[in-house]
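#struct-pred
JK: can someone run the complex with flavin-adenine dinucleotide? inputs below
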Amino acid sequence: MSAEPIASTEHFDVLIVGAGLSGVGAAHHLRTAFPDRTYAILEARDALGGTWDLFRYPGVRSDSDMQTLGYRFRPWTGVKSIADGPAILQYIQDTAADAGIDRHIRYGHRVTAASWSTEDALWTVTVEHDGETRQLTTNLLYVCSGYYHYDSGHRPAFPGIEQFGGTVVHPQQWPAELDYADKNVVVIGSGATAVTIVPAMAGQARHVTMLQRSPTYIAAIPGEDKLANRLRALLGDRLGYAVTRWKNVATTTAIYQLSRRRPRLMRSVLRKGAVKLLPPGYDVDRHFRPRYNPWDQRLCLAPDGDLFTAIRRGGTSVVTDEIAGFTETGIRLRSGTELPADVVVTATGLRLLAFGGIRLTVDDRPVQLPETMAYKGMMLSGVPNFVFTVGYTNASWTLKADLVSEYTVRLLRHLDEHGYDQCVPVNDRTDVAERPLLDFQAGYVQRSMHEFPRAGSRRPWRMGTSYPNDLLLLRHGRIDDGALRFRRKPAVHRAAAQVSSPGAPARQ
Ligand SMILES: Cc1cc2nc3c(=O)[nH]c(=O)nc-3n(C[C@H](O)[C@H](O)[C@H](O)COP(=O)(O)OP(=O)(O)OC[C@H]3O[C@@H](n4cnc5c(N)ncnc54)[C@H](O)[C@@H]3O)c2cc1C
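RT: done, structure tokens with the ligand placed:
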């Protein structure tokens, strides 16, 4: 893995922040479209893969299908459609290696600030590396930093936790040496992480309890998509993948739309699915009937019904109650019951973070994110030459990430064709009401949305939740739509730039 030294004057046509699924994908799109442009990926950690390298808990896997979580340009050839974390990491690593993208990654480079100068049409990006602060410049800042704090997850303050004699772990910092064989494990939470960890630990632990304050919708689906594998065998990797991708987009869109329009029907379908897989007489309504409607929060998947199977087999249970406090030997519940525990897993969520905590400044004025509005869910009002990736919450993240990259390529071509060097979204309409960037009821989203940019009620300020609509907007929609404003560099600067250009550094 490369760690080329950086000089303080280094300039890149594009700087990408983050070498996760999105950053590697963005680099792939850009280098394919513009092989001569310079770019680097600045990555705070010492490894690529982001989420898929960080999370190491038992059973870590996708909770959406790999034909849509995979890139549009690189077929997923694994047999399993709901894939394991290590397989997804390998896929990202292979994508980076095959295109030589890994040579452009600067590991251990945390971006702390970025300052835009309209006069120079340049971002100056401040980076911490090896205890030093360096600066780089770029024409386009492309932020693929994910959406949460990497250093630690969310853990509520549980009363008495300090007196607990067992081990407490958070899924985001899973100790490789944790031995839970023959131990009593309590997993606090009911989101995708808890639903993954519980059946994965069930094989080894003496007993695993999923302790939830309130239930979540869980749908059992096949871990392997037999039709996808048949299509691939029949049509080849590329075409088979493309057909399955559309099949899955259509299916997930239909399920989402049905959930929004006919919530009672979906509730009943999901309940019936759970009843079929749980032991006779199981209290389904207490443990698997949420208070909200399907897709108010992300729907969790149980590949091959693994969670339900674990409950049926014994050794795994679900408790729906509130925590009164920890004791020396376990957790005391509001109902008065005490759950004995040797290991407690706090699958209590993430701490959201916008743009990797980068402080943005435009012409010396700090950007207050909640005062900005997201344009097409990928740029910010009043912030020039800035693109970011935030994927879907109701479908695979990469569907949006790929579209953002495709749009960015179109945007750069548009700038080239017209001799522009700056573009900035401007919201001067009075008929656009503010909306939360992520209109999602999950607690971890609600806790932090006030720190994020806003979205708007009308196009192009709406945060799209439909891949087919976004596809039309981002792949085919007009670039010059009135909301995006363009600017040419003044002639005097163009002439000066030709003499001593910070934009003419060594090409990578
Ligand atoms: C456990 C888990 C499972 C998930 N499963 C799914 C799923 O099945 N389907 C789905 O669609 N989504 C899923 N998601 C959402 C998931 O995060 C995305 O699918 C996807 O991995 C995001 O990729 P990314 O590259 O945008 O962000 P990340 O994977 O978060 O990568 C961001 C990278 O940016 C780096 N970075 C951040 N800030 C800075 C900075 N200031 N300077 C330099 N580098 C920085 C980070 O170190 C990291 O490497 C899951 C999330 C989690 C946590």
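RT: quick notes.
The chain has two domains: 11-150+351-500, 161-346.
Residues 17-23, 42-45, 50-51, 55, 62-64, 69, 110-111, 144-146, 150, 193, 356-358, 389, 391, 396-397 surround flavin-adenine dinucleotide (CB under 6 Å).
JK: thanks, will look after standup
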